[in-house]
Amino acid sequence: MNQAELFFPRPVHQVRIDTAPQEEPEDDAPFVFEDSRPEPRVSYTVRLLDYPAVDALKVAEQRFRRELDKQLGCDVVPALRAFQNASESGESDLTKDEIAMAKRWAKAYDAARTAGFRDLGDADEAYFEVRHV
Fold first, then answer.
1. Would you list the domain boundaries of the chain?
2. E strand intervals along 1-133
3. 88 to each of 31, 49, 72, 83, 107, how far by Cα in Å?
4. Helix (H) or strand (E) holding 52
5. Of 10, 66, 77, 126, whose CB count within 10 A is highest?
6. Cα–Cα distance between 46 and 117 in angstroms, integer?
7. CA torsion 9→15→18→19, rounded to 10°?
8. Under 8 Å between Cβ of 65 and 46
């Protein structure tokens, strides 16, 4: 490229774009919000207890909750209750669904604990507390 081409560029061939109105597809109905149901929110709190550093608590709690929601979805509170019932009573007192839900809780809590402690290092006495609100 020389100075003449730099300061006096040649006109570029322009491609013509069709801007005529187009027909709307027949199956493209407008979205009706009344037909959709809101996703139920699960109300529970997560706290990291007995951990010495304060600045990393919120991030660790968010990672824990995100992983717990990913593992259990909207079954967090029922799984927590099933686990508490299983730990307080014998296996003969529980239904098969409660036992399965308690096992899901144990697996999800372990995965969430691993995610929560990922960048924190190892703290022997620290743990995550989950409470239903």
1. 44-132
2. 44-49, 127-132
3. 48, 22, 22, 9, 18
4. none
5. 126
6. 13
7. -10
8. yes
